[in-house]
Design goal:
This protein has 5 helices and 3 strands, in the order βαααααββ. By secondary structure, the chain is α+β, with helices and mostly antiparallel strands.
Length: 129
């Protein structure tokens, strides 16, 4: 495959949706919440044990959050952890109709796409010959 055979397509802002995950909105919300928890712990220079003492949440849970093993966490549980870290929390939910996309063929992910929680990724799509 040559460079000229690829088309650059901007991500939607939700990497889970871009990869067709069924609960993309929920996974994105958990990822953003986890990033906030990690940021607070880092800013306060807390160890996992210190965070446990402060919140009563087992240190292993903070370790899972830091390692983005979020499958065990519900969104409300993660929001409760934020609350225990003495953060004021405001949650806003908006509903809107989904835009239906027509699939344009197979996709390949650029190996140089930025990685991170909630970040945008660029996706390269093969052009039809």
């Amino acid at each position: 495959m040559k460079k000229d055979d690829l088309e650059l397509v901007r991500g939607s802002g939700n990497v889970y949706r871009d990869f067709g995950r069924p609960n993309a909105g929920l996974e994105q919300a958990r990822a953003v919440t986890a990033a906030k928890i990690i940021r607070i712990i880092d800013e306060r220079k807390l160890s996992m044990r210190d965070a446990e003492k402060l919140t009563g949440v087992p240190y292993s849970e903070f370790s899972r959050i830091r390692n983005t093993q979020l499958g065990r966490f519900t969104l409300d549980r993660m929001i409760a952890i934020l609350g225990k870290l003495d953060e004021d929390i405001e949650v806003s939910v908006t509903f809107r109709a989904r835009k239906r996309r027509v699939s344009a063929g197979p996709r390949a992910v650029s190996s140089k796409a930025p990685r991170g929680i909630g970040g945008r990724r660029e996706i390269r799509r093969a052009r039809k010959a």
